Description:
The chain is of the alpha/beta class. It has 4 domains: 2-130, Orthogonal Bundle (N-utilizing Substance Protein B Homolog, Chain A), CATH 1.10.940; 140-174, no CATH class; 180-235, Alpha-Beta Plaits (2-Layer Sandwich); 238-439, Vaccinia Virus protein VP39 (Rossmann fold, 3-Layer(aba) Sandwich), CATH 3.40.50.150. 49% of the residues lie in helices and 15% in strands. The N and C termini lie far apart (61 Å). Bound molecules: S-adenosylmethionine. S-adenosylmethionine is lined by residues 259-265, 282-285, 288, 310-312, 326, 328.
Amino acid sequence: xxxxxxxxxxxxxxxxxxxxxxxxxxxxxxxxxxxxxxxxxxxxxxxxxxxxxxxxxxxxxxxxxxxxxxxxxxxxxxxxxxxxxxxxxxxxxxxxxxxxxxxxxxxxxxxxxxxxxxxxxxxxxxxxxxxxxxxxxxxxxxxxxxxxxxxxxxxxxxxxxxxxxxxxxxxxxxxxxxxxxxxxxxxxxxxxxxxxxxxxxxxxxxxxxxxxxxxxxxxxxxxxxxxxxxxxxxxxxxxxxxxxxxxxxxxxxxxxxxxxxxxxxxxxxxxxxxxxxxxxxxxxxxxxxxxxxxxxxxxxxxxxxxxxxxxxxxxxxxxxxxxxxxxxxxxxxxxxxxxxxxxxxxxxxxxxxxxxxxxxxxxxxxxxxxxxxxxxxxxxxxxxxxxxxxxxxxxxxxxxxxxxxxxxxxxxxxxxxxxxxxxxxxxxxxxxxxxxxxxx
Length: 440
Ligand SMILES: C[S@@+](CC[C@H](N)C(=O)[O-])C[C@H]1O[C@@H](n2cnc3c(N)ncnc32)[C@H](O)[C@@H]1O
């Protein structure tokens, strides 16, 4: 039904409203909406769809807060109308779409979606006529929560941990559009070769500072040009690239990637080892493994074997030289790439829930590390429950394991206890945590 409407209508703003319903009410990821609906739109409209959708998701609580000042009955307004108004407001405040166009376009969308065109017309006209954007009151945490569209509990816990000034920098960095970073498949190409290749398509790039395989793309670019290069390159933030180097892998090693799909790190490990190691890549989810298989095919690796299943219940005959446990987590370190994550968790107790699963995984996979081998535990989060607390409890239970020294090359990302952290506001990288463990 929706797809029929979009096919007929081809209105990027209507597609934004449908996507917001899918994200907020059905739990879809924004990327899934872009893939599902984007194919009905032309290049220009697809770019607009993406810009408004991500923009609204980055600023959802703020936009809703503003609208509450103008809606006659905020509680009674349907979600569909609210989402349409949020998209209209976003265009007026952040995109410099002329006022008349914001009103006309949003009212037009409302005729096809929420069916309250006169309400939408009135609210937007009143807001635009007022000529100013209201400012929230309250204490520091409450104000920052509204202004940057983060839940108050998140701001409070970060404020306690990092202080106010740094928390503000963190949440503002979470709302920035992140850089597009590629990892060059160094098995087959050099970074400079790929840079020239990109330049032929009119795309400029620069070397990443820490990862020897990374290229940071400098906008503007057409994403389809990049998509066409997958296999020669992979899309992977610099922080995620650094994790594979922490394993210190070499040719001939037996390596277990315990939570492997879609294979960003598995394929990187194959590249670092010149495709001459034995890599066992395990994942629970067949759909995600399908993506890993496609990536293996595109990159042309021969050293990766795939196992589908719960890594907790698989037994291995022989120990591994290296184990990577890139564990499922809250993903709160990658909010800038997935702004919907800000609204997914109701409170800290939901973060705590990941800890038991992570500890369980770590206790199980660590059994298969050979003495003197290296196990890297990593998550794209910097929350204490999923990071240091997991490692503390693990080390308490497993006296035969210890944290090994930092790596000189990436020393600046290690703290005094040997924990590796990256942050969006400090490093302009995704937020990651890792620890390097070894067995006596
Ligand atoms: C953070 S993602 C891994 C990302 C991957 N390492 C990469 O770099 O592309 C975590 C993965 O763990 C998988 N997973 C969760 N529980 C698992 C289990 N018990 N056994 C195996 N895989 C599991 C999920 O399906 C998911 O693909």
